[in-house]
Amino acid sequence: MSKLFNVSAVEAFEKLPLKLRNFFTRYPPAPFRQYASEQTLTNAPDANPFIPNRHPVTGKVQEPVYSLRRQSDLYKLAYKFGIADLMPTMRNNKKFYAEKFEGKPLLKGVLSPKGHKWERTYDERKKKIADAVAKADEIIVEAKGSKYKKRIERKELERKTWF
Amino acid sequence: MANDITRMLERLPKHFRDLLISRIDQSQIPALRTNGKVVLEEQRYTRPEQWKVLEGDRVMFAKGPNKGKFGKVLGLHPSSNTIYTDIAETKPLVIPKQLWQDGQNGYLIDFPKTVSPDDVKVVATLVKEDGTEYDIVAEEVIFKGKYFDEDYKKMMPIRRVKYHEHIIIPWPRPDPAEDCAFSTPPEVAEERTHSENSILKFEQPADFTIESLRDPVMKRPYKWDKQVLKKGDITKLTAPGMPYSETQKAMFEERKQIRESQITEMSAEVMEFIGSRVAEHLNNVTDPNFKHYVEKVSGQYRERKLARREQEKQFRDLQIKEAEKRNRRAKRANAS
């Protein structure tokens, strides 16, 4: 497939939606400004606009500058233009798309499914049967006595082979 | 009495209301039956915006046997949200002798049927630049703006042709109301008989005292006659500090600081940094749909769109202004 764009950095920046441009104007990305990943004071230099911060005077927790919906909008827009990693971190390290599922622990049921009872006891039962078949002669001899034991021994002697 | 009945009917559930109305109709003589065309009090049209046409308007019939003909609105029938027109179907109706009109000499008359205002379209007369008049029929009308009408003695909405808002269809002139013996002439009604000298001094006599304006025999206790006031009550009864409290002032100051500290312009190196990342991403794009998307959401596209919209708005405003000027000129020519 042929490449559809051949743009310089300035031209590419012009292609960004205004919503995203305004965001990055107000909150420059990581190498130019750092953002806390935890709650800070609202007037801290590294206050994260995506996290509810605490007011220094009143001590009350304020809503994040960008609501969860707007955060999500901005992130998804940035993702489409390949600059999602330049956004400040979200609360509780929230992720979207593939990243969201990569970090998730697998569920117990997925790792070791319980299964039906016949599935759970299958190996055990098969072993029990195999053991019983192997010991079958001894058990019968015990029940029927020495006469049966002699018959088995005789049959063993009389067994015909090709050689 | 009739009002009481309609109010009672409106409170009933619909199925029961319809049943009652039909029973009432059955007990009436044919001339007084509503024939199920009665509209509830709250759904009746009261404003010109709802009627769309008023008495005296020229209309074209858009439905029914008179479709395509031109007529005139003779009156409104609010109890069924319909209008009387000069061209109308009639139905034979038997009228009891007590209700005979002047000049009636038989029981059977042809009673005109009413038409819904939705089934007619307003006809307007426009004037060309050279003075010749021509008629147009408005497919739909909308209402934008208001003016005081001297003849209706109230604020009337401005009726315009939809999608051609510069064409204004004036309301018909109502018949002038005649004064009766009990009417008060406007000079008397507008005469000022009392004027306050000061808002600080009351004009009551010095010995005039009154404890409360409330009815002394009222049974319900007055809510501020409380023995114990709560915190909320005290807040309500205390006048606020003028003009702003210290806390509010601090808040304004803080907001001002936040506003000032916000970055409003992006530096060139940040732009270069972000742009290079975006360029790296976009230059690998092979999906034509994604390219279309990028063109549509890009800031440039939006700026262009807003500029175009602004230009269109200016052009439309200009057209409306010109049309208003033209209508004024035509009205002046008609008056003279």
From TrEMBL, chain A:
Residues 19-144 form the Large ribosomal subunit protein mL59 domain. Signal peptide: none annotated. GO terms for molecular function: structural constituent of ribosome. InterPro entries: Ribosomal_mL59, Ribosomal_mL59_dom. GO terms for cellular component: mitochondrial large ribosomal subunit. PANTHER family: 54S RIBOSOMAL PROTEIN L25, MITOCHONDRIAL (PTHR28041), LARGE RIBOSOMAL SUBUNIT PROTEIN ML59 (PTHR28041:SF1). This is Large ribosomal subunit protein mL59 domain-containing protein. It comes from Ogataea haglerorum.
TrEMBL record, chain B:
Residues 305-336 are annotated as: Disordered. Residues 326-336 have a biased composition (Basic residues). Residues 305-325 have a biased composition (Basic and acidic residues). Transmembrane segments: none annotated. It comes from Ogataea haglerorum. This is KOW domain-containing protein.
